[in-house]
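Methods: holo model generation. Sequences were used as deposited, without trimming of termini or removal of tags, and paired with ligand SMILES retrieved from the corresponding compound records. Each pair was processed once, and we did not select among multiple samples. The sequence and zinc ion SMILES for this entry were:
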Amino acid sequence: MVDKQLERRIGQWVREKRGEIVGLVSELIRYDTVNRITDGTERDCQTFVAAALTSMGLETALYSPEEAPGFREHPAYFPGKDYTHRPNVAGRWKGRGTGSGKSLLFSSHADTAVVAPGWSASPWEPREIDGRLYGLGAFDMKGGLAASMMAVRCLIELGVQPDGDVTIESVVDEEFGGANGTLAGRLMGYNADAAIIPEPTNLAVCPATRGGALWRVTFRGKTGLSFSGETLINPLYDAGKFLVFLEQFERRRSDSPGPAPWYDEAAALPVIVTRAVAGDIAAALCDVGPERCDVDVWVECYPGTSERELERELTEEFASMFPGAPLPEFVKLIRFLPGCEVSPDFPLLPLLAQEVRDVCGTEATMKGAPFACDAFMFNLHSPTPAVVWGPSGANAHAGEEYVEVESLVLLTEMYARTIVGWCGTTGRPEGEMNR
Ligand SMILES: [Zn+2]
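and the model returned the structure below.
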């Protein structure tokens, strides 16, 4: 039974706490938690999150991913990372344990992308301008983390304890395909009947995520000036053909829909050449062609596509477009991120759609996320089905990243209501209803 009075109190509490929501995200932004690929600096931020969860009354643990049982042996573990100063945080709010309530987990990452060009002020100095909160990680994804923390605080302060457990976790090392922090959380046993990942989705409910690979694609040649008639091969011409191919490959794939039901509309499926390097760029002049050309490229894919299939698709289509061109070598720069999805009849989905309808007054957008993230650690490697659902904003991984404050307020309200709806409140004593 829907408790209208409780819903009203949640809405009112969240509105009154708008300033505190902004304050919490701002506090998180001030910590430099840039992912440094093999290392990171999340510790101080994670200590702050742990203290906040403890002060709310949650059973909180700050632990190194290395402590997770079977961490390094797990097939989804990706080596080469240093977790010395990078603890995960998990806070568990015990439910009433009536046996009837389902459990829920909010999983965020504390690390941010690197500082991209285009910032007009310090990325770690939050600024609220016209309803937008600017700062590195505001959108991806400290805003969502703060919303989940405030949602739990809301219910605690309203005296509502759900039947099932609610867990909030903040993991390290998600950017650059890290995902080991998320793996560690699963191995530590922080699993639930459902997980919500508050990555930025502009409030769309995303039951699926894309996958992707970041490769270094290398073409080799022979350099010199051919004084003795040596055959020279300039790898730039082959790399150039490959670049022309990639542009067409992206266009072709973006014209066709992906797998139903979450990606059945044609949408841009990015192929991003992130870097192309050839020749001695440190030298004042070059009078010969390069020995090799490296093209770094990020290629996204839909759920169900494996790393091998994606690489085969690229090489076969390149070979058919440019017959006779040498096939390049592929070296993986980060882990392959598989796409993933939850079942269309996952019972959390209609509940989330209902929350969007009730709180935002619009029909929920329910579709696959237009990005890859660590949701696969849940959906492919744990018993916990995960849905991505987070705030509105823009410029993730770019200068002037911001989150829309109103969307955080709405999200906090919807998260709190989702806890009530999913975890149940049948154990609530009489009288509490009217407090
Ligand atoms: Zn993210």
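The first strand starts at residue 35 and ends at 36.
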